[in-house]
UniProtKB/TrEMBL annotation:
GO terms for molecular function: DNA binding; sigma factor activity. GO terms for biological process: DNA-templated transcription initiation. Coiled coil: none annotated. It comes from Sporofaciens musculi. This is Sigma-70 family RNA polymerase sigma factor. It holds the Pfam family Sigma70_r4_2. It comes from the Bacteria. Residues 88-137 form the RNA polymerase sigma factor 70 region 4 type domain.
Length: 147
């Protein structure tokens, strides 16, 4: 929520008037009350500058989060839908479903051991399928050879 200066100023004035009423009832000198008021107002202004900045920054971050794509592909179909490069898309269409599942799980951060358990393969088979996929995709990413 944005910082509302008018609302905060009203709250400060109500608090300050109540405090000054108590000070006057206890016989505090008007010069001292005025000095306290000036110091409290300076403190309020300092806080206002801080909260306006943090409020704007928070709204900026929320806006940036809304602009970012948050959806991570959860299925192989989602993964294929996310691909914008036509050559890569065509290459992945020729790959079997186990290899696509391995790729998806690898992108999601699963270890090779976990992927093997999910895909129903051995760890060695997972490594081999990833190696074959790299060889298949190498001409797409390095069309003129290694860098």
């Amino acid at each position: 929520m944005a910082y509302n200066h008018g609302r905060e100023d009203r709250k400060w004035r109500i608090w300050k008037e109540a405090e000054e009423k108590v000070l006057r009832e206890h016989g505090v000198d008007e010069a001292v009350i005025e000095q306290i008021r000036m110091e409290d107002r300076a403190d309020f202004n300092s806080n206002r500058r801080f909260y306006r900045w943090t409020s704007d920054f928070g709204e900026y971050l929320e806006g940036m989060a809304d602009n970012e794509q948050q959806a991570e592909p959860n299925t192989v179909a989602d993964l294929l839908d996310e691909i914008e490069d036509e050559k890569l898309y065509q290459a992945l269409l020729t790959v079997d479903k186990h290899t696509l599942l391995i790729l998806l799980l690898k992108m999601q951060g699963y270890s090779t051991k976990e992927i093997a358990a999910v895909a129903g393969l051995t760890e060695r088979a997972v490594y081999k399928r990833l190696e074959r996929l790299r060889k298949k995709l190498k001409p797409i990413f390095y069309p003129f050879g290694e860098i």
